[in-house]
Amino acid sequence: MPEVQLLDSADARRTDLPRVGSRIDGSIVIDDQAPVSEVFDPATGHITKLVAHADSATVDRAVAVAAEAARVWRDVAMNRRFAILMRLRELIVQERDAFVDLIVSEGGKARPDAQGELNRTLDGLDSVFSAPVSLQGAYGEQVARGIDSYSLPHPLGVVATITPFNFPVMIPLWDAAAALVCGNAVIHKPSPRVPSAALLLAELIEQAGVPEGVYNVVQGEADTVNALLDHEGIAAASFVGSTPVAKHVYTRGCAAGKRVQALGGAKNHIVVMPDCDLDFTADSLVSGAFGSTGQRCMAATLAVAVGDVADPLRAAIAQRIPSLRVGPGTDPESEMGPVISRESQRRVIELIDRGVRDGAELVVDGRSLADERDGFFVGPTLLDGVQPGMAVYDIEIFGPVLGIVRVATLDDALALIATNPFGNGASIFTASGPAARRFQREAAAGMVGVNVPIPVPVNSFSTGGWKASVFGAHGLLGPEAFRFYTHQKIVTARWPESGAQSMGMAFNPGR
């Protein structure tokens, strides 16, 4: 489960680097004795700051503060919560450049990718503005004589949100918006790779009018996560990350009696039919595979070429890759940045090596970029002849690597998707309506695209996959988010008429 390595005592005492702390009850908290880890600029490889981890005592304090604040926040009128989140949207737009700078400097994204993340962040916030309707409940009149029944959505209390490095603003705000509009208090644990955007978001949430203590940030890694999952004061946990960690979070959280949604990894199959628009498809695959440096759970990692489209598809993709501008996000010309860490860089290169050893053909080799540049760069890489059983097919690479899988028929392509343990997304590129309709009905994935490389839906729909890509019954955003962050309380009520008992009218719910 560890994502970063804690520093030894000598490194931890360094005073030349700023420290990033937690934020509890509106104040920054940094324990000088707390374990710390390094935050890098992925484009240079330089350490830029240290992040101080929250221990169990700090988590206890955050939960106590949040529990007290939750009792106040849940009683805030819905129209007031709505107005606060509208104000939050305005503040995020005002601080757009600050967020983009943090995404670039700590996450390594090219600036267009960072700006795209901000756009999707706002889309997710917009999706919760249906709350006055979505949280109305339901009413059943005269379910029995003189008796009415109705449901009331109630907040859970204190919830934990645990988010990954690859979307340091979007996913935290998606979680925060849904949890807050439902009346919950939140303790957010961001990735220690990208700790700073979470603090800016928390500051803006309070500026918008959310009372201090309702939204708190605790920094850390595995120990901090486990402290949140074990804490009896937390009612639910939402997680996005790799499948092994998602399984851990789900198992441990459920064992502690919590409601848990844990979104994991993926191997997304993009099926390419012989009748596709080849240029459009090749452009889409390059964008889907190498956008965000391939570091997204919806990356287009496997191009499943059906029949005789394989060779022209391979040529079209290979022709486009050299024109991709790879560089630091601070360069306005860059279209693809580095991966997040030295460990990630080495892992991606080793998986490419294994792919070649397993028999895949290396069409475009991006490994040399690691030696040519500072920072954690890997160039766009294309492999052909990828098959199940190869590491590059079976493992989520989370880097700029696209594999071509050759199959004879659409039946074969659908069988690959059905037997893969992941089920996050799948797409088809075709000019055939019947093929597309069959694909959308039969593809074993939670999000399906037709002539779309990244089939994440608009945010009025819920986002989430199937199989090992998700643990728990709920997805992010949309109706699923409202259901996840609320209990349903069912009330059955009867108001006897005055004097009814004196008239001898016995209570009989079945009348």
* Largest sheet data: 7 strands, mixed
Second CATH tier, the architecture of the largest domain: 3-Layer(aba) Sandwich
CATH homologous superfamily caption of the largest domain: Aldehyde Dehydrogenase, Chain A, domain 1
* The top level CATH class name of the largest domain: Alpha Beta
According to DSSP, the number of beta strands is 23
Kindly report how far apart the N and C termini lie.
59 Å
CATH topology of the largest domain: Aldehyde Dehydrogenase, Chain A, domain 1
Radius of gyration, in angstroms, nearest whole number: 25 Å
Instruction: Give the count of structural domains.
Output: 2
Give the neighbour order of strands across the main sheet: 15-16-17-14-13-19-20
Helix content: 25-40%
Question: What keywords describe this structure?
Answer:
18 helices, six-stranded mixed beta sheet, Aldehyde Dehydrogenase, Chain A, domain 1, 23 strands, 511 residues
